[in-house]
Amino acid sequence: MKKITYTDKQETRAGFGEGLLEAGRVNPNIIALTADLTTSMKMDAFVKEFPERFLQVGIAEANMIGIAAGLTIGGKIPFTGTFANFSTSRVYDQIRQSVAYSNKNVKICASHAGLTLGEDGATHQILEDIGMMKMLPNMTVIVPCDFNQTKAATIAIADYNGPVYLRFGRPKVPNFTPVNEHFQIGKAIVLSEGKDITIFACGHLVWKAIEAGEILAQKGIDAEIINIHTIKPLDNLAILASVKKTRCVVTAEEHQINGGLGDSIAQLLARNYPAPIEMVGVFDKFGESATPEELMVAYGLDTINIVDAAIKSIARK
Amino acid sequence: MATISELEKISTQVRRDVLRMIHAVKSGHPGGALGCADFFTVLYNEILIHHPKNFTMEGKNEDIFFLSNGHLSAVWYSTLARCGYFDIKELATFRKLHSRLQGHPTTAEGLEGVRIASGSLGQGLSVGLGAAISKKLNKDNSLIYVLTGDGELQEGQNWEAIMFAGSKKTDNIIAVVDYNGKQIDGPTNSVISLGNLKAKWESFDWTVLEMNGNHIPEVIETLNKAKSLTHKGKPIVILMKTEMGYGVDFMMGTHKWHGQAPSDEQLTNALSQLKETLGDY
Q1: A245 SS3 class
Q2: CB contact at 8 A, A201 and A295
């Protein structure tokens, strides 16, 4: 197992804020919109530097999505910013018709996704958003894993022409991907090569997958760790190449098992190269109030759960 | 500038097109389409600054129209074809497999004149506002027009958009409400009353105009007045009274033709009331 260290702990949403500012400096067509969550979305620096390119829409997410779709018609590149729940389930039909079906160049940027939103509880802890977004034709779905990668992904999607869902989170998490690493949409990143099992992870679970890989190494298990930062389009070639080598799989994500990363990989494998697969995620439950750390343990999304899943998956080879 | 008589000829032909298109596939929404035929005719042939032969998605320096109540697609398609966006022969493909003229409008098939999908109600005004803001940012003084239904105003997203536009003084948009007082389940006021619609819009800081949408001279005059009121710090809305099914006697005065195609016999009867003026497609 390759030794991977982190430099500091930062919020992925802060990576979004920095990426937005940087992209905005390069491309004058970038417009930022929010529904009364400027500071939570870390958009303040953009607002300060480009007040004329910022739209405060108020607590009206449906209108925000529609306005974003309309902005593209004049050549603008709108980045909408609100919590993941209000970015998706609240406005699903607006996204479906005005953005995805109309194939508009809207970037739907969503923070506070998943259980790590913490104490606010299940009303805000969306665990179904990846599934909803990936089901929409024309939609690209990206779930970066740390501050650096979220910043890079934000910059990358500005240069991509089409609807994108960019999902990130609230808490400070280990920042370990290289600074200014080029972000290639749809290209999986092999973090550590191995031969006994492949662990595919996205978002906050990537660091936990790395930790799990280290524990597995101590047990004599050589795990391959792959960061699937783009859920759609899925990097089919990279996934199949790895599984043909390791012949068993664990997926890890802060999302429902139904409709998430594991679901996409299971479908790919079932159709091309059936292999044992264990999934770390939320099993058809809503979240609840607690600290992020408590919730990750309580819902089986911790490092040890990935380790256990790996051992189980290997036993099924 | 077209004469009133020329515009009447176009709107009559558009009504024929609408009925023939819907009859051919035994599906569609004739009631509202017939009611709005005069508005579409005036808007596209007299009011809009646009380039039908050179359609671009961006519509730079052109006025842009959005149809929020997408079920009026037949009247929009006919109007677009009749003023040159695409060949009128294509009207014969309406609602058929692989047609660009989908049941509800879409950008997916690249149909000239359409810039957003619509059909699921309540979204067009927001989209129009986005396009209006885009024009302002681009220092483009042309205008945005949006048509919504009156029943459609029961969708909450409209009121988010109405509140936004009043608050932000989006003054390069003209919204038009097809105020025919009818929706699928019956009279709008018995489904969910719109109350004092004029007062509602005014209280959201819009300038409100009213017109009879089935009287071409009045439509011209009111739309020109609305244009003259743009860029003055307030969004504009026109409450447009129309008669659902206008132009065909047995389709008027009822909500029953919202989404029903005429039979062979009914088509013959309807077309006998609408003389072929510009040649059928």
Answers
A1: helix
A2: no
Cβ A38 vs Cβ A31: under 8 Å: no
Cβ-contact A80, A105 below 8 angstroms: no
In chain A, DSSP finds a helix count (H) and a strand count (E) of 12, 14
Contacts of A69 in chain B (CB under 8 A): 116, 126-127, 130
CB neighbours (10 Å) of residue B156? Answer: 12
| Sequence-ordered list of residues with C-beta below 8 angstroms from that of B254, at least 6 positions apart, any chain | B182, B244, B245
Cβ-based burial of B169 (10 A; exposed 0-12, middle 13-18, buried ≥19):
exposed
pLDDT, residue A45, reads 98
| First-residue to last-residue Cα distance in chain B | 24
Please tell me whether the interface predicted TM-score (ipTM) of this complex is above 0.95: yes
Count of the separate structural domains present in chain B: 1
All domains in chain A, ordered by first residue: 9-175 (3.40.50.970), 189-315 (3.40.50.920)
**Alpha-carbon span A296 to B269, nearest angstrom:** 69
The answer, for A105 touching chain B at a CB cutoff of 8 Å, is no
Q: What is the CATH number of the domain that holds B186?
A: 3.40.50.970
pLDDT digits (tens, 9 = 90+) for A226-266: 999 999 999 999 999 999 999 999 999 999 999 999 999 99
- Domain containing residue B208: 4-52+59-272
**pTM for this predicted structure:** 0.97
- Point out which residues pair with A83 in neighbouring strands: A111
Helix axes B124-137, B156-168, angle to 10 degrees: 20
Distance from CA of A107 to the nearest CA of B (A): 14
**Dihedrals phi, psi of B186, to nearest 5 degrees:** 135, -160
**Burial bucket for residue A267 (CB in 10 Å: 0-12, 13-18, 19+):** exposed
What are B49-86's pLDDT values in tens digits? Answer: 999 999 999 999 999 999 999 999 999 999 999 999 99
CA distances from A45 to A111, A137, A240, B176, B210 (A): 17, 33, 42, 38, 44
**Inside any domain, residue B278:** no
> Are residues A155 and A23 in contact, defined by beta-carbon separation less than 8 angstroms?
yes
* Most A CBs within 10 Å, among B134, B140, B141, B159, to test the A interface: B134
Residue B280, domain member (yes or no): no
